[in-house]
Amino acid sequence: MAQGKRQGTDQWTRRGAGVAIGAALLAGCTHGARDPHSLVVGASPTGVPFSYVDPATNRLTGAMVDIAAMLAGALGMVADMRVVPFAALVPSLTTGRIDLIAAAMLRTPAREALVGFSQAVFAYAGALALRGDDGAPCPDLASLRNRRVGAQIGTRFVDQLREAGVSRIATYQGLGDMLRDLAHGRIDAAYGDAPILRHILAVGPRWHLRMPGEFRSPGQEPLCLIARRGSPLLARIDAQLAGPARAAIGPILHRWGLAA
After folding, report:
1. Between helices 194-203 and 175-183, what is the axis angle to 10°?
2. What is the pLDDT of residues 103-149, one digit of tens each?
3. CB 3.0 to 4.6 Å from 141: which of 83, 164, 168, 226, for a disulfide?
4. Does domain 126-210 have CATH number 3.30.230.10?
5. Which residues make beta-bridge pairs with 43?
6. pTM given for the model
């Protein structure tokens, strides 16, 4: 693996939160009239490979960013990408600062009470990471009840840990920081989005961590684009997903290593 790629991922884990907060504040100050052909899309900066800030360009990129841009084009619009911290995505949407969320945010009943979801564009499960010298069997979340476990704040994975009886949960803004704390012994395990954990462990710093093969998550959950409840934008997006735009998603997922 190229050293530059590792350094880039390490910079992302250190700088992503600061970049995100600054850009989110900038987006929040934009209250003027909008171009009707512009679709303001919010995406988190630390969700590789779904949405993240590329350290080389300082721009948002990722599979969900590409899918949102593709759908905006199909609707005759231009996607205006805004960096927003994960925990601020739903508030930014409900207050009108953004029109659409394109990030690794899974569909849950609690979120459905606040926002609207498109048809699914992908589905995935949670994954577990342990230190490389930790050989204890971890077949499921219940096996973590006596451990201190990290999870990203505002995600479905915090709910799943609580439902499994895990009480010692440390929350993080991003998975990179969580994995670094795991490597340094500040937590005993890390639980989060399987594709993101896999990507960071493959291209990130050489932490001595492993993903236990025996672990089974509660199951896959749908990943969708998210708009305000009752927004006509959702019906327009779903119409595209039921038509030719659906075929365009496969190559995007393949390009980001999310599909065969």
Report:
1. 60
2. 999 988 889 999 999 999 999 999 999 999 999 999 999 999 999 99
3. 164
4. no
5. 83
6. 0.78
Joined tokens for residue 171: 């929350």
Label the pairing between strands 115-124 and 221-228.
antiparallel
DSSP of the chain, one letter per residue? --HHHHHHHHHHHHHHHHHHHHHHHHHHT--SPPPTTEEEEEE-SEETTTEEEETTTTEEESHHHHHHHHHHHHTT-EEEEEE--GGGHHHHHHTTS-SEE-SS-B--HHHHTTEEEEEEEEEE-EEEEEETT------SGGGGTTS-EEEETTSHHHHHHHHTT---EEEES-HHHHHHHHHTTSSSEEEEEHHHHHHHHHHS----EE--TT---S--EEEEEEEETT-HHHHHHHHHHTTTHHHHHHHHHHHTTS--
Torsion, Cα 161 225 221 252, to 10 degrees, reads -120
Q: State residue 33's pLDDT score.
A: 57
Q: Do domains 3-123+223-255 and 126-210 have the same CATH topology?
A: yes
Domain boundaries, given as residue ranges, for the chain: 3-123+223-255, 126-210
Q: What average pLDDT does range 72-79 have in this prediction? A: 96
The percent of residues above 70 in pLDDT, for the chain, comes to 87
Least confident of 75-79, 151-155, 214-218: 151-155
pLDDT at 2 over 50: no
Q: Name the CATH topology of 3-123+223-255.
A: D-Maltodextrin-Binding Protein; domain 2 (3.40.190)
